[in-house]
């Protein structure tokens, strides 16, 4: 036992020494088979183990197992028998070098099964390595070493367990401390939140109380103001009721006076219209009715201006009513004076007519006999041509008719002088613009699209001339808006028809027929429009009379060109082709008018300007000396449009005229036509020859058929 204790003391001393830090290896004995490099590496590893910290041997488990299998007290003699084969790790100092070399197998005999098997396989390998014949001393030392390592391992394990328990306790303590701190932090945060909520609630309660107090103050002020406002409203309502009552009374009086003014104006307009029909007496000797018309228009204009002014201001006064009544009395006196003058003039004219009738009775009988012998105008012109030659001037009766139309147009212009010169009067200028649009826009809408559309245009123009309101650009327009409105509309409407003829018809010959049929219907219902239309047509195209204006002394070249129908702008006369186109358009329109009637009008009455005027125009044209380029073009256009209607109306007399044109008149045109102006003459010659050969005048292109009016 003492030896055993001594061994342990020795091992403890070795452990504490620097040598005891060396790792034990059973291959430290010198062996020739081991390479030098490997021995050097093993020594280096052993030296590193001196510096490395203390660690347990991998064989401690085997030592413990061996110790557990031995009795409590181990004798030296039993150690070799009970001990298992030694591992490869042994102390090189206790083993002789020679025995080690003789008993240890080659290093290559170490099996690879040490890495794959468990602890028992390691022991089996060690049994092969360690020779069975080792001495008991070596076995004892080896066993002591392994027992020491096992004890050291157990102590280390115990210390490790204790260290782990301490660490776990420290962790649990730290966790407990952290949990407590977290709880305290949560409690502190909850406390702060509660305090903030309490403060916010106090602030809100305080604000609510202040708001309630302010609201109560506002309510009190509102109630006070409401009382004041109610008092003011009651006073205002009472005042308004008093004012409404006064205004109602004033309006009733004003409306009564305004109705009186309107009735006076209506009577004035009716009296003024009585003057217009008396224009037919302007050919009476020593009588001039234009003064009555002008004065009547002035009176109507004054009354209309007075009514318009009072309407803008509000209601007329009693003085305004008195002024209009005086104007009415003056108009009545004017009508009475005019009628007396007309009656006296008619009686004088009747007396003179009776005297002249007796003197001309014999002359008329002679003329009737001559007419029975020469029924056709062309035949008369042919006889005159053979005896006396063609005329240079138009017949006196036609020129008188021409002058009457021009005078009528001038009187119409004078009748709407207030509307014509309204630069300073905005209201009259507005009425003028609306009336002009109402008169001209429907004419621009005339087309041959359908009969229903054409009838709508006719109704619009007819309603305007009849005094009914019509819609123009969203406004209601009527000629009754101004006393001179009817004259102005008639003039502008006739002017627009002529412009449409020289513009639209000159480029589109077919458009002459829808324009002509509308104008014919308007002419039948409103003859004044037809007269002014003829005046405009004769002024724009003197060849529609027919009339060749003569140049008078003192007349400039530009003025004379205008008289001939040319347009002159800035001393520049229009080109001949453009001039001929315009003349052609107006003659075609005139030829269409004399043969067409409005299909929905009064068919019992005569045409206001029928085929007899066309026959007269043709006869007078053939009695005049021809003009180069113009005469041929006018005859061709007139015959193309109106030739078929004249053929049906006059029969054999018309064919005599056509024969006269071919045999006598075309050669005269050739005599005055240069070689560069033969175009129109050639077309006229071909047209006449073709018609005489076929003994038929073709219908004009674009004529309105009965089926057109059903569209």
From TrEMBL:
<keyword id="KW-0539">Nucleus</keyword>
<dbReference type="InterPro" id="IPR012476">
    <property type="entry name" value="GLE1"/>
</dbReference>
<keyword id="KW-0963">Cytoplasm</keyword>
<feature type="compositionally biased region" description="Low complexity">
    <location>
        <begin position="96"/>
        <end position="111"/>
    </location>
</feature>
<feature type="compositionally biased region" description="Basic and acidic residues">
    <location>
        <begin position="346"/>
        <end position="370"/>
    </location>
</feature>
<feature type="region of interest" description="Disordered">
    <location>
        <begin position="346"/>
        <end position="390"/>
    </location>
</feature>
<keyword id="KW-0653">Protein transport</keyword>
<dbReference type="GO" id="GO:0031369">
    <property type="term" value="F:translation initiation factor binding"/>
</dbReference>
<protein>
    <recommendedName>
        <fullName>mRNA export factor GLE1</fullName>
    </recommendedName>
</protein>
<keyword id="KW-0811">Translocation</keyword>
<dbReference type="GO" id="GO:0015031">
    <property type="term" value="P:protein transport"/>
</dbReference>
<keyword id="KW-0509">mRNA transport</keyword>
<dbReference type="GO" id="GO:0005543">
    <property type="term" value="F:phospholipid binding"/>
</dbReference>
<dbReference type="GO" id="GO:0000822">
    <property type="term" value="F:inositol hexakisphosphate binding"/>
</dbReference>
<feature type="compositionally biased region" description="Polar residues">
    <location>
        <begin position="75"/>
        <end position="86"/>
    </location>
</feature>
<feature type="coiled-coil region">
    <location>
        <begin position="157"/>
        <end position="256"/>
    </location>
</feature>
<dbReference type="GO" id="GO:0005737">
    <property type="term" value="C:cytoplasm"/>
</dbReference>
<dbReference type="GO" id="GO:0044614">
    <property type="term" value="C:nuclear pore cytoplasmic filaments"/>
</dbReference>
<comment type="function">
    <text>Required for the export of mRNAs containing poly(A) tails from the nucleus into the cytoplasm. May be involved in the terminal step of the mRNA transport through the nuclear pore complex (NPC).</text>
</comment>
<keyword id="KW-0906">Nuclear pore complex</keyword>
<comment type="similarity">
    <text>Belongs to the GLE1 family.</text>
</comment>
<dbReference type="Pfam" id="PF07817">
    <property type="entry name" value="GLE1"/>
</dbReference>
<dbReference type="InterPro" id="IPR038506">
    <property type="entry name" value="GLE1-like_sf"/>
</dbReference>
<feature type="compositionally biased region" description="Polar residues">
    <location>
        <begin position="372"/>
        <end position="383"/>
    </location>
</feature>
<keyword id="KW-0175">Coiled coil</keyword>
<keyword id="KW-0813">Transport</keyword>
<feature type="region of interest" description="Disordered">
    <location>
        <begin position="72"/>
        <end position="117"/>
    </location>
</feature>
<dbReference type="GO" id="GO:0016973">
    <property type="term" value="P:poly(A)+ mRNA export from nucleus"/>
</dbReference>
